[in-house]
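Usage

Read records sequentially. Each one opens with the input sequence:
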Amino acid sequence: MYLPDISIVMALHTEAGGTEKTGITKAELGELHSVAASAKHCDECFELRSEAAVLQQQASERAAEVRDIRANLSSTCAELDSTRAELSSTQAELDSIRKEAAALREGATALKHEAQALTHEVQALKAREARALKKTVRRTMRAGQRSRLTARGDAAQLPVPPSRGDRQLSNPEKRAALSVALQVGALQNGGRQDRALSLLRHSAEVLSPAETATLVFVLRESQLDELAGTLIHIYGRDNSDPDVMQAAARLHQHGAPDDAAALLQAALSTRTGRP
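and closes with the structure output:
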């Protein structure tokens, strides 16, 4: 509602003929204008109060939203703190695992070096053992050869039926063979099969055909049949045909035709590639 200014109202009052024409004095007109102005102000106050109420409602709603946001932020911060704590704990565990892994790697490297060192030691011991076995066999054979040369001509052999075996072998040969057989038998009975086989292999390398036949005979007498069979196979496989033939002849003379045949069969199988 538009309310003109009091000056405009008074000017209109004058143009209209003043009090005589309008029937109202300027004083009365001024009071009416004041009352109208007061009424206008009241209308504006009501509108302002309505707007203020709306604004208060909106402010209240915004405040509630702010409180919710703050609560959510507080919860989120708590979750973040918890996550940070978990991450810190996980990082500590990872650091511990890395340290343990590094220690394990160092331990594995040390064990690898120790294993390599032990392997070298075992190889050295095996080589030393092989040399010692060769020396033992050679020493035994040399002793037998010396004794045989000393006693040559004094130990003539007497004919014996083949079924009973040769009971008067050359004493030097038998002593040498008996020494090897005792060592091989002790190793076999002591559970050291590998060393027994190694000693047989070295014996087959250094023994003469006659000494080999004597050793087979002594092993049979000592009931070391498996070792005797092994020696026959090794000697037939690794030695020359003339040596094999001589050894087989001596075995036949000792009354062991089966061993002589086995020796020849081992040599033949090796030459022809048949089992």
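Summary fields computed downstream for this record:
- The chain has a mean pLDDT of 78.
- The chain is about 85% helix and 0% strand.
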